[in-house]
């Protein structure tokens, strides 16, 4: 039987710890992160923030799914229509590419209002179009219904 990528929920702010502990147990885990500059009154610091808050991807056989609960901080699996969510290998590859890319940004935005459709194939997603759900300042949430994802885009 082939291993598949599943999504697990973690306790808030435990994503990296859970990923590290799962990997130490021999379970392939992946928590995509982005780099942000946080500013305090006395300093600036580069921090790594999870792309998928409170979520970690794990790759394992279906029969091994319960082994993740040996790690403190794991809450439950993500389910869709009564089945655990399975993430395709190419979707994980896109997340890894986005994480490593320094220059993956939108080139231009004309009108971005809730309900508008955005071409997503250029970002590596199979879904041809995503629907803009919410726009706030320089951020935009796009729903990819066919994939079951909400993607947060940073507008520049």
From TrEMBL:
CDD domains membership: NGN_SP_UpxY
Keywords from the UniProt entry: Transcription, Transcription antitermination, Transcription regulation
Domain NusG-like N-terminal: 2-99
One Pfam family hit: NusG
UniProt keyword annotation of Protein biosynthesis present: no
Stored InterPro entries: NGN-like_dom, NGN_dom_sf, NusG-like
Gene3D superfamilies for the chain: NusG, N-terminal domain
PANTHER family with a match to the protein in the record: KOW MOTIF FAMILY PROTEIN, EXPRESSED, RHO-INTERACTING TRANSCRIPTION TERMINATION FACTOR NUSG
Protein name: UpxY family transcription antiterminator
Species in which this protein is naturally found: Formosa undariae
């Amino acid at each position: 039987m082939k291993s598949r990528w599943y999504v697990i929920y973690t306790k808030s702010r435990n994503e990296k710890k859970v990923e590290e502990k799962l990997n130490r147990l021999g379970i392939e885990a992946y928590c995509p992160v982005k780099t942000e500059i946080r500013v305090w009154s006395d300093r600036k610091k580069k921090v790594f923030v999870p792309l998928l808050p409170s979520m970690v991807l794990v790759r394992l056989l279906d029969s091994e799914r319960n082994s993740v609960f040996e790690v403190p901080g794991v809450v439950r699996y993500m389910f869709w229509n009564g089945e655990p969510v399975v993430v395709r290998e190419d979707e994980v590859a896109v997340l890894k590419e986005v994480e490593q890319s320094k220059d993956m940004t939108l080139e231009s935005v004309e009108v971005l209002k809730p309900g508008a459709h955005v071409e997503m194939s250029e970002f590596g997603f199979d879904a041809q179009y995503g629907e803009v759900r919410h726009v706030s300042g320089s951020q935009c949430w796009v729903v990819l219904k066919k994939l079951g994802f909400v993607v947060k885009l940073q507008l520049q």
